[in-house]
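Continuing from the previous page...

OK, I double-checked the sequence for Protein translocase subunit SecD against my notes and this is the correct one:
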Amino acid sequence: MGRDLLLKHGLIVAVVLASVLFAVPPQDKIHLGLDLQGGLHLVLEVQVEKAIERAMERRAEAIRRDLIAKGLSVAVVEAQGAQGVRLAFSKAPDRGPLEEVVRNYDASGTVRQQTPELWFYEPAAAELQHMRTSSVDQALEKIRNRIDAFGVSEPSISKQGTQRIVVQLPGLQDTQRAVELIGKTAQLDLKLVHSQPTMPGAQPPPGTQLLPLKKKDPKTGQFIDAGGYFVERRAQVSGDMLADARAVPDQANAQYYVLMRLDNRGKKIFERLTRENVGKSLAIVLDDVVFSAPVIQEPIPGGEARITGNFTPEEARDLAIVLREGALPAPVAIIENRAVGPSLGSDSIADGIRAALLGASLVVLFLLVYYRFSGLIANVALLLNLVIVVGILALPGLGATLTLPGIAGIILTLGMAVDANVLIFERIREELRLGKSVRAAVDAGFNRAFSAIMDSNVTTIIAAVVLFQFGTGPVKGFAVTLTIGIAVSMFTAIFVSKTIFETILRVRRVTKLSI
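Thanks. Re-ran it with the corrected sequence; updated structure tokens here:
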């Protein structure tokens, strides 16, 4: 046996051994998708226009502070969504300082004068588009942080299109709790209470808004409407000033509350707020719902506040997680919510294995009956194909996820591997009919079938790449396994099969080939 043949044998043995080592525990197991082990599949849509509204409200407040710092007589600065910010002054301002302040936030924005005292800032189209894009990116990052804090292993979180986010949590049991944790906006604000409505349908005073008050029904455990408050539109303290939040048991009862600790900037603002408003009520607002409105008894220098609501331990912990990880830049709408039970996943695995075994058995039988000894060689290559594909899927750094369509992709590649062998064997038969020796016929068969096999497989890989690029979830799983399987089938059908033929032809003097 020549040195070149020994090197080929060594390569084949090394590839197979590596595949077996990766596929067998305690190495990383193959990650199973939702359809095989159960879990949660969510498609979320970020309400980007709401994100723009909030961003413009923050920008309006920042512009107001800067205008006051420049000595301009500001009367009202009011955000009007994506349209812009209305700027009213008690005395006509100079255009220069006004434009300078606005340009600090939006270099391409437009500042228009409507009257000497009334101006309007209109954001540039590129600025609005940046707000839309960044709001989706921020939402994706916040959701990822929440899921990591929740403790789900192997989550899949990705952007779909311009404003949708796909979340897959395999193996998750408590799906409802996860949905609430992911979908909660968690926009925290501390706002001064102006008054309570005295009659239904009362209009809020200027500069205020009516927010509902929610309290927990001790019988049902659900939060119910309990009136409402007129609160100031402008938040004195917001969630971005939060340094920490944690669930704490209430010693007075068996419930929990959430203790918040503000950062240094928030501490200073909170201390000044409580010092200047002793005797007034301060509403703790979460997602435009008042959870409590305690009366300020004295200045609070420590920067700590609590959210009470007779929470269960899980509710308090989840609320602390979303507050700690930060609010979503905008509400998210759940477009698709699909939970797969573990029993259904087990059935899918069993059905997939049965289908794979049945398909493989029929292929093996066909090759043995039709191509006899050469069919046995093809079956050996087919077995190695399966081993190597499984080993690649289990590679630690690949992060491949096996889904039911992925199993279909593996079965399809088995068929394509057989197709390659059929092309090679039929070519060898043609060469033998032309009167060539067995060695010459084998060499010619492999060489002449190579281009057809390569063209077919490359075309299929291109289609798989397109599926992976534009597909989601199960479609991507199918594309990954199909691509891996095709690449492996090229190795086994051409390299492994030819090496076996060469070994037999060198070891024994073969004058007739069973094919």
